[in-house]
Design a protein that fits this description.
Helix content is 51%, strand content 11%. The protein is built from 17 helices and ten strands. The strands form three sheets. Strands 2-3-6-5-4 form a five-stranded mixed beta sheet. Strands 1-9-10 form a three-stranded antiparallel beta sheet. Strands 7-8 form a two-stranded antiparallel sheet. The longest helix has 31 residues. The two termini are 33 Å apart.
Length: 416
């Protein structure tokens, strides 16, 4: 029966601590996720030992495997099979690896078709995250699952790119084509485009969502390097810019800690260490005001992978946004999860208002006051896509006894 009045409806809105996966949000991986990360990244016996510990803990504490951990399993199999093809649960992980390979190939073929459409329209195209990383920093695309391909075009050509894709049969989700010019700020964060035959791509107008400085985007395009996806010549960000992009997009509160940024950053630091200009890296991090996230991420990588050489983090510049984010990143326990999310939310509000003009600020103010009063803090850390993943997708794996075949169950639809 529906609620009788507005007060009853308001009382049924889930608060932050009532969200799935244990309530609250997390920034950093827990013990189980850290073990799986070691199994995916550590070579030889160390990786096998970490995976064995993870399996034993799965048997003791229950069968559920969160979505970010599930995405690591193809990389876990590939890493462990390098030194020992036969190990407990290898057959099932091999099946997951092959499934990931098939999905990645289908997704990359569809992305190549979308890229060809934009190139025929004379629009410069660049790929980032999953497509770029799977091409140049992973052994095979199966090791780096992705639901879509992130495609970037110059921000002033977003309208032309959207029109070209729509004419070719792609359908825009979450956005409409006829929007005022001031709303291109929102569109620059990403537009989901779907095709019945070619899958989904995300169209972006900026690589760094934390800044609107055109000089930064111009530098990104100037330093971009070529890569090839399914026979299509295309650009990707330089290794320096790609590392910063991966870290700033991955380090944020979520209902389950995101893990893909850890493996992405580790692979970039392992295979592309000689291509990283650390002076440019720290300068760009300071310009985009993400020093707190970057320093915290490098500290985490140093603890997780002590054998990997990493630069000494530079002290963040003192400003309100980075001060709030640094305080949020220090709260790693469950008790501080809600506080960390609120601090990140406040930092996101300040950042968004600083990037907007006065017209947008006045237009957003009423909505933001209502959301803050209703404690809808989860709407502010990044886009809503990460929330959709955690609330709409679940997958479980059961390890009953050593060597037994795992059982799987899946519910919902995965948006990742």
């Amino acid at each position: 029966m529906p609620p009788a009045n507005k007060a009853d409806r308001r009382s049924q809105v889930p608060r932050l601590r009532a969200f799935p996966f244990g309530g609250g949000t997390r920034v950093w991986p827990d013990l189980d996720q850290s073990l799986l990360l070691r199994a995916a990244l550590e070579p030889g016996a160390d990786g096998h030992m970490a995976f064995a510990r993870w399996c034993r803990r799965r048997t003791k504490v229950g069968a559920c495997v969160d979505y970010p951990s599930d995405r690591l399993l193809p990389l876990v199999f590939s890493n462990l099979a390098q030194t020992q093809p036969r190990f407990p649960h290898a057959d099932h992980l091999r099946a997951l690896y092959r499934l990931s390979w098939a999905r990645s190939e289908r997704q990359r073929r569809g992305a190549a078709e979308g890229i060809r459409v934009l190139q025929r329209a004379g629009i410069p195209v660049m790929v980032s995250k999953g497509c770029a990383l799977a091409t140049d920093f992973y052994r095979t695309p199966a090791e780096r699952p992705s639901h879509d391909c992130d495609i970037h075009v110059p921000e002033h050509q977003l309208g032309d790119a959207l029109a070209a894709l729509m004419d070719a049969g792609w359908v825009a989700h979450k956005v409409q084509h006829a929007l005022p010019a001031r709303d291109w700020t929102v569109l620059a964060f990403g537009m989901a485009m779907r095709h019945p035959d070619h899958g989904e791509i995300d169209l972006h107008g900026r690589l760094f969502r934390d800044s609107r400085d055109p000089a930064i985007e111009a530098a990104v395009w100037q330093d971009a390097v070529p890569c090839t996806i399914k026979g299509v010549e295309i650009l990707r960000p330089s290794t320096t810019h790609l590392l910063l992009h991966v870290m700033t997009n991955g380090i944020k509160p979520d209902h389950v800690a995101t893990l893909q940024w850890v493996t992405d950053a580790a692979r970039i630091l392992e295979l592309g260490a000689g291509q990283i200009d650390w002076t440019d890296f720290w300068s760009l991090a300071r310009q985009t005001q993400v020093m707190a996230r970057v320093c915290a991420g490098l500290n985490f990588l140093q603890v997780l992978l002590p054998d990997r050489p990493l630069p000494s983090p530079v002290r963040p510049s003192p400003n309100w946004m980075e001060w709030l984010e640094s305080r949020a990143l220090r709260r790693q326990d469950e008790a501080g999860a809600a506080t960390a999310t609120r601090l990140f939310a406040l930092a996101a509000i300040v950042r968004r208002y600083r990037m907007a003009d006065w017209t947008d600020r006045a237009r957003w103010l009423k909505s933001d006051i209502g959301k803050i009063a209703g404690r809808s803090w989860h709407r502010y850390f990044g886009t809503a896509d990460s929330c959709l993943i955690s609330r709409s997708a679940s997958r479980s794996i059961s390890f009953s006894v050593e060597g037994a075949a795992p059982t799987w169950s899946a519910t919902g639809s995965i948006h990742g």
